[in-house]
Write a structure and sequence with these properties.
- By secondary structure, the chain is mainly alpha-helical.
- About 65% of the residues lie in helices and about 10% in strands.
- It contains five helices and three strands.
- It has a three-stranded parallel beta sheet with strand order 1-2-3.
- Strand 2, helix 4 and strand 3 form a beta-alpha-beta unit.
- The longest helix is centred in the last third of the chain and has 52 residues.
- It is elongated and about 75 Å long.
- The termini are far apart.
Length: about 150
């Protein structure tokens, strides 16, 4: 991705209220991922220091919940298959329209939000069912204790 195209996309994201952090190389991107949590990663296949598909595998191994959209100049079926197999949630081909990219970003961020909410609701439901089970046992114990006193 050219610096001008990247800067234009960054401004589009920022105007939509997204925080943006960019890295010029795969290694600097991996370092940023170690320092800060991200909701979404846009990953170019063609990086100056490493292959984007290799980095995709590594990132997905480290954080399987991270939403990753792969950017490629070669939009083939094989590339799509490789992207999805290695953990990408979607991919976009160069050149892209900013409207299309913004729509994919919004969808990826919403998907991440829904997954996180689902996990939180499951935890709350589990806590509630544990509490109900404990309450039911306590009620049975009280009934037993009351009947034994009669």
């Amino acid at each position: 991705m050219t610096n001008r195209k990247s800067a234009k996309a960054s401004k589009s994201f920022e105007s939509e209220g997204y925080g943006v952090s960019s890295a010029e190389t795969g290694e600097s991107g991996l370092a940023k991922l170690e320092q800060h949590p991200f909701d979404l990663l846009l990953l170019d296949v063609s990086l100056p220091d490493r292959n984007g598909l290799d980095i995709l595998k590594e990132i997905h191994r480290r954080d399987p919940q991270l939403s990753i959209v792969l950017i490629t100049a070669y939009g083939s079926i094989d590339m799509a298959r490789a992207a999805f197999k290695n953990g990408a949630m979607d991919y976009i081909t160069k050149p892209w329209s900013n409207d299309e990219l913004l729509a994919q970003v919004a969808q990826a961020v919403e998907s991440r939000r829904l997954r996180d909410e689902n996990v939180q609701l499951k935890r709350a439901l589990k806590r509630a069912s544990i509490f109900q089970a404990s309450s039911a046992r306590a009620t049975r114990c009280r009934r037993s204790w009351i009947s034994s006193r009669r």
